[in-house]
Amino acid sequence: MNFPLSRRSFATAASLLPIACSAPGKTVLGGSKAPEAPVASNPLIRQRADTQIFRHDDGWYYAMGSVPEYDRLALRRSKTLAGLADAEERVLWRHEPSGPMSGFLWAPELHYVDGRWIVYFAAGPSGGGEDVFRIRTFAVVCDGRDPMTGNWSVLGEFKAPWDSFNLDSTIFTHRGVRYFSWAQREPGIETNSNVYIAPMKDALTLASAPARLTVPTLDWEIQGFKVNEGSAFLNRNGRLFMTYSASATDARYCMGLLSVDETANIMDPRAWTKAPEPVFTTCKETSVYGPGHNSFTVDEEGRDILVYHGRDYEAIEGDPLFNPDRHTRIQRIYYHANGVPDFGVPVGNGALPERFIPAVHRTVRMACDGTNLSVSDAPLAQTQFRSIEAGEGVVQLSPILKPDHCLVAAADGSVTLAPRATAEASHFRREAGPASGTVRFASVPFEGRALAYASDRLVLGDSYDASVAWLAD
Ligand code: AHR
């Protein structure tokens, strides 16, 4: 008897598998399963843009973002990423009746600075006209140890190098030094905003003059507005990466990438390398438009996660800034062989996808290019498949770039891509594979046979053969 496993419980149970199984249905699961984390789905949080998600050392995931009304700072938390979707949100602070913080509130971020919870955000006055875009960076501070229950009050205004439009601040620590990063319009440079970093002296004061890391000059950075904003930092593989967002906040909004050797002087702009092309853009195949203003976190298994917002339609009526449908989305981050993050494409709505690697040949992956299936070293987006529930322990496997299609098996052992009908030929039972830590997709109509790796092809093979063992990543 096969033990149908959910995707998350499979990963947990199989990792406890004490021995390789020799035949289908003989799965022997050892030990008790670790607590299951539910599989997250996109969009994760509806109508929250510019979202920061981080996992604090108290075990909670905290999330803050711009609300469509731009009138309040709201915080939610959950023990799982998926739980953020419907977690209770607490309003920490609302814009004031008048003055410099009575209008828009943008892109709040929660940070723990010198033993205090502080939320940094951009705010403007409510006077109407262009004055509402007199945006500056401010902070509120909590009087207690729990940001969800403490009292919040104004700490003050960030002391920026110039008295000009500034927003999208974040904090990161590198080699023991805490840095502030923000976007600002600099006198003498004809752009809406550029991105800066500087070490911090205290919560609102810089310890030195800023380093200007990027100015919007490339064609994909100046669509609609000349904008570089929304910086976020990730230290991996001996390098410090900075992502940022560019252009107008419509479907042309996209992400760029800078990187620097982690041992370099990161305050020297010449030490940084700027990618000439955007690293994350609108994807019509997955129906995600204007992805950007990202942050970074990890999932419950410690794997790097990209957090960003994006709409699931392209055409916007009116000013995109006042369109509410920039939803928070998340997806796995993978890495190129040279250690640089590979963000692929925005994966689209639905359960997070996975890659499937033959246990017997780990340099290739299940892939779909157009309607052509293969097992190859294909680009990331062609190797991401969504498991779509089709009954108890039964799934359809759908490539993210062809979300209305799925894998279909045939009696002759061939596997092809076809529209996602309800045909039983597209149903596979996801179960522990014939080797520890692997998964097997047993064909429902063709008993005793499962998805198998056969050189560069995907076929149906005997369920006890090593070729049906896949690593889910
Ligand atoms: O979402 C409001 C503002 O618009 C954000 O601060 C900025 O990143 C975006 O362009």
Automatic annotation (TrEMBL):
GO terms for molecular function: hydrolase activity, hydrolyzing O-glycosyl compounds. Pfam families: Glyco_hydro_43. GO terms for biological process: carbohydrate metabolic process. CDD domains: GH43f_LbAraf43-like. Keywords: Glycosidase, Hydrolase, Signal. Belongs to the glycosyl hydrolase 43 family. This is Arabinofuranosidase. It comes from Novosphingobium guangzhouense.
